[in-house]
Design a protein that fits this description.
Helix content: 40-55%
Shape: rod-shaped
Bound molecules: adenosine-5'-diphosphate
Strand order of the largest sheet: 2-1-5-4-3
Structural class: alpha+beta
Largest sheet: 5 strands, antiparallel
Radius of gyration: 52 Å
Order of helices and strands: HHEEHEEEHHHEHEEHEEHHEE
Number of helices: 10
Number of domains: 3
Length: 455
């Protein structure tokens, strides 16, 4: 069910219940009032007749005549007067006799002084009347036709007003709810039109301060992020294809050239060596991409265990030196270690080694002496590793970009690469809730510093 319908029904239900309660209260209150007023009226009528009979000495026949001559005698108040011994002294019309008085009823009236009750639609009053030290019992009974008619009219008036008010509320409620939710509808329509080809579209924010404005703003920010990541995915894919095409084109070219005519063994060996070099570049690239994909996983899906930083660094160093035996990598502690926990982290062994290898290789390949000095340090919470070289340094304008995938600095001609290493390392360190920073000066050297929470 749509929110607008739900809201409307909710408020309508609440309002209808309150209105109904109000109408029922008015009706019940009026009904009670009518009944009490009519009992008072009956009492007055009985006393008036008794006064006429006893004080004004109006003959009973005259009173009966007046009663019977009333235009609607059937509905007139019928009065009867008894003495305490249940002897009938006066009756408006014995042949009509609306109330069958009994000895029991008379005794009850004497005892309670006054009683009121209903018999079908009749209202009856019985009361004790004193005249010249004599006690009489008066009863009066009638149908409050006029009062009941007015009560009925009130009932219909309340019912009709209820229906009219509820109908007006439905119309007004529908109008206001749709007006209030119109911006949401617009957002839904607009968002529905956004696809991968028009990610630049944004939702118009009419009032930034209300909830709908906030929603639209949040959507726009989400679209900003989506567009950004979509763009970086696009450039990532085009970078990959470019990186793949270059060595593949080189391999194809070298092999085609070699096939044009017969060559000497030395020439074939040269072609094979060149092709092998390009193939190794492809292998490095695909390994880098695979690692990048692994580092992009959710932390929870990656196996983590407790690892000592010095052991990890020594393993990484061995891997680097195995391939480049002319590189030199030194690992040292900045201070003495009292607690193993200070240099122990919870991490993924494979990924951390990949990050360390990248930083070691970069330090060595971008410096003439091919040396990298690593210092292990820590503070209260963090393990701090710095990878220092005295190489060619990174130009200032490159520093803000070097962590982007496939970005290679202006110094790239100094050594081969594919621009994946640093972006991969940053991802890996972030995956370990760590941070990577750098300081570099051209022709002086570079220091990459990693901070990872230790145990
Ligand atoms: P690659 O080394 O394959 O080019 P990286 O992502 O590892 O890719 O590095 C990106 C760029 O950062 C490099 O091309 C280089 O310009 C610069 N760089 C990284 N480390 C160093 C360093 N230690 N000294 C100088 N430049 C560096």
């Amino acid at each position: 069910m749509k929110i607008s319908v739900k809201l409307l029904l909710l408020y309508l239900g609440l309002f209808a219940a309150l209105l109904l309660a109000f109408a029922v209260f008015i009706y019940a209150y009026s009904a009670k009032n009518r009944k009490n007023q009519y009992y008072s009226h009956l009492k007055r009528e009985a006393i008036t007749k008794a006064n006429l009979l006893f004080d004004a000495k109006v003959p009973p026949q005259v009173l009966q005549l007046i009663y019977k001559s009333a235009p609607n005698a059937l509905f007139e108040e019928e009065v009867a007067i008894y003495d305490t011994s249940f002897n009938l002294l006066y009756h408006d019309a014995v042949q009509i006799d609306k109330v069958k008085e009994s000895r029991k009823m008379i005794d009850q009236i004497i005892q309670q002084k006054e009683i009121t009750f209903e018999q079908g639609s009749l209202q009856i009053v019985g009361l004790v009347y004193q005249h010249h030290h004599q006690t009489y019992i008066l009863t009066a009974a009638a149908n409050d036709n006029y009062g009941l008619m007015r009560l009925n009219e009130l009932k219909y008036a309340l019912m009709i007003s209820f229906i009219i008010i509820i109908s007006l509320t439905v119309i007004a409620g529908h109008y206001f709810v749709s007006r209030a939710l119109k911006p949401v509808k617009e957002i839904v329509n607009k968002v529905g039109q956004i696809t991968a080809t028009n990610l630049h579209n944004r939702i118009q924010v009419s009032n930034e301060k209300d909830e709908i404005g906030e929603l639209a703003n949040t959507f726009n920010h989400m679209l900003d992020r989506l567009e950004q990541s979509f763009d970086s995915q696009k450039s990532f894919v085009s970078n990959i294809s470019h990186e793949l095409r270059t060595p593949l084109a080189a391999i194809v070219g070298e092999l085609q050239l070699a096939l044009i005519k017969e060559r000497s063994i030395a020439q074939y060996q040269e072609v094979i060596a060149l092709s092998l070099n390009d193939a190794q570049r492809l292998v490095r690239l695909s390994n880098g991409l695979l690692d990048l994909a692994k580092a992009s996983y959710d932390q929870n899906t990656i196996g983590m265990k407790t690892l000592r930083a010095d052991e990890l660094l020594m393993d990484a160093r061995d891997s680097v030196l195995k391939i480049n035996n002319h590189y030199r990598v030194e690992v040292e502690f900045a201070s003495e270690i009292d607690r193993d926990e200070d240099i122990t982290v919870k991490g993924n062994e494979y990924l951390l080694k990949v990050a360390f290898i990248n930083l070691m290789e970069n330090a060595c390949k971008f410096s003439k002496n091919h040396q990298c000095a690593i210092t292990i340090n820590f503070n209260a919470n963090m393990l701090i590793l710095s990878f220092k070289d005295t190489g060619i340094g990174i130009p200032k304008k490159d520093i803000e970009h070097i962590f982007e995938p496939f970005y290679r600095g202006h110094n790239k001609d100094f050594s081969a690469g594919n621009g994946i290493g640093l972006s991969l390392s940053k991802k890996i360190i972030a995956l370990h809730q760590g941070n990577i920073t750098l300081q570099s000066e051209v022709n002086v050297g570079t220091i990459f510093q990693i901070e990872i929470p230790h145990l």
